[in-house]
């Protein structure tokens, strides 16, 4: 059985780490390079870096930040935000990313997943999915959660797997920043319908929430931001508690 992974997430806006609630009301959470170095030294298994307001004119800033972060970390490092082509991914991998995350553009152009998997291997292609419940149905949202679609979360996960995704990063917009726990029912269903590793995101507020998403949600990894950025949960202590709960992690 593979070890469960703990992944801090750096949401980047204008070169700074930010964190909000349900994708709005952003507040500053610190320098991304300093945070990345701290997490690399203090128990994180991987790091995710998302430029949440990415557009083509911000690509240069993103790449420079990626290079700075890559020089400071010795753990796998996933980068997302504004990726639309094979060329974008080539630039980010050369800058030091180990994996890339595609989200909105993959929904708009699903063949992008095929192209990236064929070119770089599915092991470095993460498909991120932001979704919320509308009338009891999980619907995929685009552009940092701003644009709702009629696309069913679970149908999209299955299609992403068929097209070559290597991993699914699922964020519940309903749970994001609330610290009320992960969307374990949805996470569990995603885990059941796909053979891919599933990263749970949105809602971490306590150590018990991590225990629950691994046991009830069957998640392979758990991603969180504010509880780590603001030192509410220490990753080493979190992992020690997970071990006590018979959840395998790397210490």
Describe what this molecule looks like in 3D.
The chain has 251 residues and is α/β, with parallel strands linked by helices. 37% of the residues lie in helices and 28% in strands. The chain contains ten helices and twelve strands. The chain has helices at residues 32-41, 59-72, 86-95, 104-108, 111-120, 153-163, 184-193, 207-215, 226-229, 235-244; strands at residues 5-13, 16-21, 24-30, 47-51, 77-80, 99-102, 125-134, 137-142, 147-152, 167-172, 198-201, 221-224. The chain has an eight-stranded parallel beta barrel, surrounded by seven helices.
Helix/strand order: EEEHEHEHEHHEEEHEHEHEHH
Helicity range? 25-40%
The largest beta-sheet arranges its strands as: 1-4-5-6-7-10-11-12
Largest sheet: 8 strands, parallel, barrel
Task: List low-confidence stretches.
Answer: 55-59
Overall number of strands: 12
Overall structural class, as computed from helix and strand content, comes to alpha/beta
Q: Could you tell me the mean pLDDT?
A: 91
What proportion strand? 25-35%
- Count of helices? 10
For the record, give the distance between the C-alpha atoms at the N and C termini, rounded to a whole number.
15 Å
- Global morphology: globular
Radius of gyration: 16 Å
Which key terms come to mind for this protein?
251 residues, alpha/beta, 8-stranded parallel beta barrel, 37% helix
